[in-house]
Design goal:
The protein is of the alpha+beta class. It is about 45% helix and about 5% strand.
């Protein structure tokens, strides 16, 4: 009765749960969520009913991790965390970022910290939450702070402890835990000292270009050149497996089996073999499909003639009857696709398509995981008859809230779709052939090719699984490159660790900002993406709310421009001369540009980067492919930048532009490149040689013009 009255008087107070109460109350479960709901009495609580993001990891609470004396009280608080809403009066004190309800992953972070506190209290001999008073809060905060966590992390953790007090008050039977002292005294004295790195929001390192180049080449090779062969081989392997599974033992099938295997045994010929968990065996499914024999009949013959040992001595591939059309370096990439490798190749194909999409769109991994078949329809012709752009419709999940400020696990459809360049469209088409209509393109059930028809997972492949598959893809590529004598196409280890899905977004921004020529003949595509990003129009990435990819690109572009200015300052300070119509502006720009140390990006830097790039005429862009620096002034640019663009179209750099700047270093690079071209001309046929020699002469002429017109920095200031 007391509980009901309390709940009626205060709608934020939750009723006391019973042992049979659901862990997640029905009002928080979306109609399409089919995950099983746990009961309050269970030793493990599933938070899956709160998770609608198809790419998110399902979360469970294991109560064995909470000390038994504190478990009953902690259960009530955690149940309030799952089902309660913090009062608006409290949220207003925390600012605009506070929410009534967070995501399941945020809940996990909170209850894990609460369990950690409970274990510490238990070690101190405290068995009730009410006995966690100011002294205990101060002692535990000091221990937690001294464990070496950052200031930002500590502030977040101590906020979780404040929530322990807040959610305890939402229970009809509160444990009475005290308010942490930092809520009244301020948190600053409880936090580690600031070390200048706490505001680092984006410390994810871009992939090294030496890693990205061959990785992207092989991923595109799978999508463009190998996909038809692999999909045909997979279909044929599945057909043979179905035939083998439906075989019925008959005298005729036994006779056919003997007629197939015994001549191979007697003649010393190789026997059809397949790798199973790293070991060679007779390819039983392959043999069964070709003879109609059952596995039992095959097994009897294997034992009778000691076939297993013969297979180890003389294994033979099991070629599938499908054509091979793909090529590497102008030669077929396979003589045939073997029965046992079709599964591995199918997995690598799915991984390659995912790499192409996540890198060449700039999507967050969660957005790629949420893509479905049909997300990128072919465009309708425009009114003037030209082909329209391919647009990708997908969900986004970061900072998606409902009208009450609560986290929405299912995300929401982006108001503005992604623009897809041709390689991305092809990758999507490949994945659409791998999954049923309207299915997730990275469906865990359909990409688990090693266990087709087995226990099927729900949703998309998890990020950890995709990361493992990327590493497996790299291993496969390196074995293939070594076997084919292609050492220049090996994928080296990245100096900053595993590749991972989360690094591609930052890498794309880095690549567009700093490598306009591209690594894999993608200069035009990169250039178009730069243009789309710069226009800030409703047709591109930039009009997305909540800091879309354009902010990441602005950060990378600003860092690149600052690096260019720093190198320019260093060269001129060392005595190098400067030439070009924009030489004076370049000197001014270099003098005003900041120098950045390291690669950590503070939270506030995105807005500063956008303002930095908007200074028309005094931002320096390096263009190593044109051997110059562009002091970009929009009205002077001959590369025809879009209206409002703050960076040049570096892939379309045009001679005679009024934004050009060169140093003595560029002149040396021009002559070195001319020498390389002359060496190529010496080995080329006549007409091609003459074109190469003319190109080399133009480069030397440009270098000579620099020498004749270059001035010192003192003469320009």
């Amino acid at each position: 009765m007391t509980s009901a009255l309390a709940h009626e008087a205060d709608p934020y107070i939750l009723p006391t749960p019973t042992p049979d109460s659901s862990v997640v109350l029905s009002q928080w479960i979306n109609p399409g969520n089919t995950h099983l709901n746990s009961r309050y009495r269970d030793a493990v609580w599933s938070l899956a009913p709160l998770i609608d993001n198809p790419g998110a990891t399902l979360i469970s609470i294991h109560w064995k991790n909470c000390p038994a004396p504190l478990r009953d009280e902690m259960k009530l608080v955690v149940w309030s965390l799952i089902n309660g809403e913090r009062r608006p009066t409290f949220l207003r004190t925390k600012g605009l970022s506070a929410r009534g309800r967070g995501s399941a992953s945020t809940m996990m972070q909170k209850y894990c910290e609460w369990f950690r506190l409970a274990r510490w209290l238990h070690q101190q001999g405290i068995t009730r939450l009410v006995d966690c008073t100011k002294d205990q809060w101060q002692a535990y905060a000091a221990e937690r702070r001294d464990e070496g966590i950052s200031r930002v992390h500590a502030e977040m953790v101590f906020g979780y402890f404040t929530d322990l007090w807040v959610y305890d008050q939402l229970s009809a039977r509160p444990a009475g835990i005290s308010c942490p002292p930092w809520e009244s005294e301020g948190m600053d004295d409880y936090l580690p000292a600031a070390d200048g790195t706490d505001n680092a929001e984006n410390s994810t390192e871009p992939l090294d270009p030496q890693v990205l180049g061959p990785l992207l080449i092989w991923a595109l090779r799978f999508v463009n050149d190998f996909a038809d062969d692999i999909l045909a081989a997979w279909a044929e392997q599945r057909r043979l497996m179905d035939v083998a599974a439906s075989s019925i033992a008959t005298p005729a099938s036994r006779t056919t089996l003997k007629e197939y295997l015994l001549p191979l045994i007697d003649s010393g010929a190789p026997l059809p073999a397949a790798h199973v968990k790293g070991r060679l065996y007779l390819a039983r499914d392959y043999v069964a499909a070709h003879t109609g024999a059952t596995h039992a009949q095959i097994e009897r013959l294997v034992k009778l003639h000691n076939i297993q040992n013969l297979v180890l001595e003389r294994p033979a591939p099991c070629p599938l009857n499908v054509p091979v059309t793909g090529q590497i370096e102008g030669r077929p990439w396979r003589e045939h696709i073997a029965f046992s490798e079709a599964t591995t190749l199918m997995q690598q194909l799915g991984t390659a398509a995912a790499i192409v999409i996540v890198y060449l769109t700039g999507m967050r991994p969660q957005e790629v995981q949420a893509l479905r078949s049909g997300c990128c329809p072919d465009p309708e012709p425009t009114t003037d008859g030209t082909e329209g752009r391919h647009l990708i419709r997908t969900y986004h999940f970061k900072n998606v809230l409902d009208d009450n400020g609560n986290h929405t696990s299912a995300g929401e459809i982006r108001e503005v779709p992604w623009v897809a360049i041709a390689p991305v469209v092809r990758a999507i088409r490949v994945l659409e052939r791998m999954v049923p209509e309207d299915e997730l393109l990275l469906s865990a059930a359909h990409h688990d090719v090693h266990r087709p028809g087995g226990k099927q997972s729900q949703g998309a492949m998890r990020r950890a699984s995709l990361n493992r598959r990327i590493e497996a893809f790299v291993t496969w590529v390196n074995r293939e490159a070594e076997a084919r004598g292609l050492p220049d196409q090996l994928i080296p280890e990245d100096p900053f660790g595993a590749i991972g899905m989360s690094r591609f977004r930052r890498t794309l921004a880095w690549h567009v900002a700093r490598r306009p020529g591209g690594l894999a003949a993608l200069a035009i595509q990169y250039g178009h993406m730069r243009t789309v990003l710069d226009t800030r129009t409703s047709s591109g990435y930039a009009s997305r709310s909540r800091r879309g990819l354009h902010s990441v690109l602005d950060v990378e572009t600003a860092l690149a421009a600052a690096d260019t200015a720093a190198r320019f300052r260093d060269r001129t300070a060392a005595g190098e001369k400067i030439s070009g119509p924009a030489a004076r502006r370049a000197v001014t720009a270099a003098g005003q540009a900041p120098r950045f140390e390291g690669r950590l990006v503070p939270k506030t830097f995105a807005k500063k980067a956008t303002a930095f790039l908007a200074r028309d005429g005094i931002v320096l862009y390096d263009n190593p492919d044109a051997f110059l620096i562009c002091a970009f002034k929009h009205d002077n640019a001959l590369c025809e930048p879009e209206p409002g663009a703050t960076a040049p179209r570096q892939y379309a750099c045009t001679s005679g532009c009024g934004n050009t700047v060169r140093t003595d270093t560029h002149a040396r690079q021009l002559r070195a490149r001319a020498d390389e071209i002359d060496q190529l001309a010496d080995r080329a046929p006549g007409p091609i040689a003459r074109k190469l020699q003319a190109n080399a002469a133009r480069l030397r002429e440009t270098a000579a013009t620099h020498d004749a017109t270059a001035q010192t920095i003192e003469a320009l200031t």
